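Progress report, Aim 2. The chain analyzed during this reporting quarter is listed below.
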Amino acid sequence: MNNDSAYFDSRKKNGPIPASALDILLSALLRERWTDFEGAKDVYRKLQNARPRSMEAQIARQRLEALDTLIAEKELYQKIDQNARLVLSQIGMNISSNSQILKLLFDVDAIDLDNDSAPFVPLRPEYIERCLDLVPREFPGDPGPNSFGTGGTPPFYQGNGGNGLRPASRQEFENIVHIAAKWSNVVDIFSVPVQTEKSMSDYDCALSMEKKFSGLKMIGTRKMSTDQSMHLAGRDDWLDGTSLLTSFTPMSNMVTPFLRSAANGNNLLLLDLSISGASGPNSPEALLTFIHAQVLFMMILVQTIRPGTVCVHGGIPGVVGTDGDISYTNPSQWLLNEAMARLNLWVTGFPSAQSGGSTSVSEDLSQAIIESKNSRRRIRRYGAHIIRHALGTLGNLKYFNSQKFEEDCKAENEARKYVNTNAIGEISVLPLHLPEDDHAVQAILEFAKKGTPKITDHTLRNVGVFKQWEEEVARQEKLLLENAEDGTPAQAA
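Predicted structure tokens for the chain:
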């Protein structure tokens, strides 16, 4: 008994066991994941001083080199967020010919009537902030980070055995729902996966989806009756996918459905699909700023109509390939969507849904599966929130293939098993090297005045900017791989 007492007494005198180098390293890595990069720098420096010869200190030295880049990247997202609000207050949106929206904002004193220099209708800065503060940063049905699912609603079902391209039949749609339910552990959001025959309405699709799939689902209610659209009201497992603007201007066929969705109290996925150089400005920062401004405008309208409504930021930037069509194989496509995800994850806190995991491949199914797998791997490594279009699609969202859907789900299931057993090795944050554009707001103003980005001076000055960004990211990833092969503690994307 006495010996035991002496043992415990001595433990008290010695105090707590000092944190190991690994404990300190993990605390710094966690700060990185929380985007507290300055805090991570402090911990890494302490680790170097406390355990200078340890392997953990070697990792700390490497991470310190990356953190300044990450700090600058976060500051750039903060700049994009502020500039998007500046676009709304100094440039505005082209709503002067839409009496419904104009009256709605005029009645709540949202319009800055003293600003006579804006090309469109500007909003008062204080009203912008008041409404955005009302947007919930969380919602009950949130599937969490790095969530992958279907989406995009391709117009054609690509049948097996040479059945041709056509909208899906009811039986084919039911089969897709069955696959989604079977793989509900990896299908985190189930958006309407493909257009159906006219005999099956959007409401029929919604009923079919919720019958077997209990997770988060998304459908647009534009083509539903008012009673049918109310089916989603107050439902944590549904998002009503809607849009309003293109190139500053409300789409005439979307105004009434948009306002109805906001009034219903549905959880809303607010979509903006602007394409660089076509319907949006032609640089990464300017395009992200423009899309963010349009989504924020939609959020403001929704909060004006029904304060506290869940709004998922659906800014989905696009780029065109060499053939002039949007390209989901183009590296800039996932880079832009990843940057938009970080804007919300790191700065605004808004729930967000971006695009990734699809492919431009349309005929070679095995190659399409590989491309989608690689895209999901990169997105997961860089970190995102909800990613649509990741399962089952091919041919730049023109086609949906149920065999690819099932193979994508299998591949994602295996990938998650690997992540669950190797999470610590990929916890550090990789810089995205987003190029800065000091003329982003001026580019958006020039776009507003000329009516199209295709003829702006800004577009001509930035012809090669996306290619340069792709090359820089590829160069940085190559360095990571080379360091890993040399034995330096580095994690490749």
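Residues 5-13, 489-493 have pLDDT under 50 and may be disordered. The chain has 17 helices and 14 strands. These observations will guide the mutagenesis work planned for the next reporting period.
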